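Sequence, structure tokens quoted for completeness.
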Amino acid sequence: MDYTLETSQLKQKLLKSIYSLQLKSLTTLQSASPLLHSQRGMGMVTQHQVHQLADKAKSLCGDLDNIKNLLHYCQDDLVRQIPNPTGSRYGGVSGIHCSLDGSIYVTAESAPWVHVLSSTGHTLQSLPCQQTGKGGSIFLPEDVTVTRMGMVAVADMVNEAIWVFNPHTSLSKGEWIKIGKVGSPRGIGVDSMGKILVADYAQGQVHSFALDHAFRTLNAHTVSNLQGPRYVSPVPSGGFVVSEECGDVKVFMSSCKLLCSLSSKYGHQFGNPAGVCVDMDGSILVADEQRRTVHLFPEHGAPVCLVSTGLRRPAGMACSSSGHLFVADTGENCVKVFKYCVRPPYRPTKAGASRADPNQTHRWRGGVVPLQPH
């Protein structure tokens, strides 16, 4: 049978099923609602029938959510590969951040650089990770993010420190500011309130803190009892999600209280969770280093496998407002870009209309760090 014809017939069958459910539910609602509101008792409807209907309705709603998700997302749609801008001399790419203006920030294992790329992989800037002053020592960033003020922040596990690049100094090239000491920082992010999030691997903690204009830490909080936290990502509605090397991914509220673990909520078994990110719809995306996959965990419905092949050793991960997924593949020393949404997410405007143009999203204050390319 012709594939196009087969697909067309499947579409018609699916639409017919959905329309039949819609029509039946509306008809039943119109006839049952007045009786349920005015009639005494339950007529001949038994308690067993009510529970049976409730269970079937729950199952059917779950099936519809899964159909919606499978229609909305696509699998293994590799758009491009971006080579490690540092080259093959150093280890593979590991940390990645995608800002709202479309810029991509990349770090690599054993490389004292943060590279700022365009969405197509063109190098916009290269930021050397070196302390200010003659003979200043270099440091190696594990992961990278951008603060609310548009400043680059990195986790440095070797020196047990967090560094923030301040371009607004008397020095023409700016300078790195060392922010306190953290036992074993690996992943780093910035939450919806502008606080910096740090995954402390050896201590089994996630730290969150704000910075004032003098780069002093404020309102520090710590979440403990984690099993090897690796990467951390903010949740748009508040809170954060963190991957644990020992096999789970946990979601915390803005109050730092545990909301859920993905393995328990979805019944999903992880191998070795690595990079995590959250898209504009609130869905959580997780890279599994051991299984070499990426799964999406929607708010409603079962997990969806977005990448099932083509990854050697996925590490850090980020997603854009245009429906692209950026995966740092340390094993192949490149960033792999996947299109995971069938269409760009639509966001309501102030006037109540919808838009799909990612260029209309506001730019981060400060934009790209004003540094001359190396």
Summary: The chain is about 20% helix and 35% strand.
